[in-house]
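$ run holo --ligand "S-adenosylmethionine" --emit tokens
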Amino acid sequence: MQKRNPQKTGTPSESRSTPHRLSSDLAWLWPMWGDHASDYGRYADHAIGLIRRHAQRPVATLLDISCGGGKNAWNFKRHFKVTGVDISPTMLDQTRRLNPDCDFVQADMRTFDLGKRFDAVLMDDGISYMTSRADLSAALATAFHHLEPGGVMILTPDVTTETFCQNQTTCTPAEEKYKPTGIEVVFVENNYDPDPTDEHYETTILYLIRENGVLRVETDRFILGLFSLDTWIEMFSDTGFLVQRQAFRDDGVDYTTFICVKPA
Ligand SMILES: C[S@@+](CC[C@H](N)C(=O)[O-])C[C@H]1O[C@@H](n2cnc3c(N)ncnc32)[C@H](O)[C@@H]1O
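-- output --
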């Protein structure tokens, strides 16, 4: 898993009923995987530049859909008034601690309606939770609904079919400055696609946790969406967005960022 994308889960129905462990009993590990200031800051600089360049209206407010533990929100709130939405109460607790000055709402990205619109929308790694075209379409419609005309959505999936790397395995040590005393953690993540003809893949994570030198190994496994560039572009167009894309390379990993404008 890329450093700024530490948390993922299973199919959308699983995400409602079986929260993955980094959103539940292992949530205390979250702040140690990817520094919110440096790792997430590089992505924020990229995305904020795109918002400024492509929005067809002044941008004062931003809706962060699947805000997770609020590492993006921590960076974006320096530029916009940020509201975040996430399905996990545990992750919302984390983002509220990191960002007491922002508003957060617990909701499902496929169905919520806050009754107001925003100048910009951010959909980052949480969009990987959409593992079918129907769910992806519902999430994009929700984003479109919450955007002011002329507003822009920035969306960066973890991978597309074109960038997916079979059996990619990464190993990330916990951030020194967020480690409690006596704790060592290493995150080992493997991405594997058992069937390249469908539109999802599996991620397995090993958490190597040493408490005062004593090792315990925890595991997680979940399914994530995998769509081609053409499919993404078709889905954005079907929702009503005008779409462009921009490459983003971070820490040796290539991403595609989609810039989606709601026509004024
Ligand atoms: C990798 S985390 C996001 C981290 C975030 N980018 C940050 O800056 O800290 C992905 C998030 O997506 C959320 N999520 C998954 N399915 C969701 C859904 N259906 N609706 C809203 N949020 C969802 C998870 O609860 C999780 O917090």
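-- notes --
The longest helix spans residues 39-54.
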